[in-house]
Amino acid sequence: MSETKQAALKTSAFKVPGEGSSVTISVVTVVVILAAWTLVTNMGWIKPIFLPSPQATYQQFYEYLTGAANDKPLWQHFAASMLRVFAAFFLACLLAIPIGIAMGMSRVWRGIFDPPIELYRPLPPLAYLPLIIIWFGIDELPKVLLIFLSCFAPLAMAARSGMRSASQEQMNAAYSMGASYTQVIRHVVLPAAMPEILVGMRVAIGFGWSTLVAAEMVAANVGLGQMVLNASNFLRTDIVVMGIIVIGVVAYMFDLLMRWVEHKIVPWKGRA
User: Fold this and answer.
1) Calpha distance 110→103 (Å, rounded)
2) Cα–Cα distance for residue pair 209/54, rounded to 1 Å
3) Angle 54-66/237-265 helices, nearest 10 degrees?
């Protein structure tokens, strides 16, 4: 058997399902979950106080969307949460990525920033929420700060790890062609680090959204997290489930956006 045929057989043997089949499986999974949810709730196997039906959840979504609910419209909650999450995420990108780059390039900066980041990184946001309230009050600052801290650590760690992606041979080749240290950082190291930095951004925005409910516990009167918390106090499970779905869908849509940005900025990622 020729080498060409052997290579073709190996390629076909390790071929993974295409993107189209993955999307089909995902759609089928969502349909099955919705069907099971509809079945168990409409048959009365689970009481509505524990799990509302899809119809009741959609009814609450419609009422909040049209402003018919006994609360602020959904767009006001959505706008407030988006402002808090993306303000914190933007500030985290401005600070964490340069700090992570510095940690990856210098042992001095790594020695300065590594202990505090590693100290607070494993802590859940609710652990240091009381301190943030004591230090900064109950205005918008503590809400944004809590989300900022949840985004900061994964961004800094991703940038630090990404700075090690460029091989020494690539840097030596750039130096041999007369590149300066700054040019090597800009044209060799940073492009090699971008895939991990973008992955860190995806992870960070996920942490930001997951911290949203905790952040809006701080005397908030508007926001998706506040809407969920307020509904839970009155055992309005239909509103709670609706709010959770909205938060999850928005986070998923932003993750899809980040994947698209990653594909455009680093199209070589994952290719041999």
Assistant:
1) 4
2) 23
3) 80
> What burial letters (b/e) apply to 254-263, b meaning 16+ CB within 10 Å?
beeebeeebe
| pLDDT above 50 for 16 | no
SS3 69: coil
90 has pLDDT over 50: yes
CA-to-CA distance for 75 and 246, rounded, in angstroms?
11
Would the pTM count as exceeding 0.85? no
In this structure, are residues 145 and 132 in contact, taking their beta carbons and an 8 Å threshold?
yes
Whether the CB-CB separation of 163 and 101 falls below 8 Å is answered with yes
**Enclosing H/E stretch for 258:** helix 237-265
- The Cα–Cα gap between 91 and 108 comes to 24
Rounded CA gap, 16 and 188, in Å? 32
Q: Return the minimum-mean-pLDDT range out of 44-48, 112-116, 188-192, 209-213.
A: 188-192
Which pLDDT belongs to residue 271?
56
In the chain, the domains with their CATH numbers are: 24-69 (no CATH), 71-265 (1.10.3720.10)
Query: What does the pLDDT read at residue 182?
Result: 79
| Tokens (6 digits) for 147 | 């989300």
- Give the position of tokens 């706008």: 79
d(CA 91, CA 98): 12
Task: Say yes or no to pLDDT of 6 above 80.
Answer: no
pLDDT tens digits for 126-183? 888 889 989 998 888 999 999 999 999 999 999 998 887 777 777 778 878 888 877 8
Question: 80, 79, 120: which is closest to 96 by C-alpha?
Answer: 120
Q: Which residues of 34-51 are buried (b: 16+ CB within 10 A; e: fewer)?
A: eeebeeebeeeeeeeeeb
Helix, strand, coil percentages (3-state) for the chain, rounded to 5, are 80, 0, 20
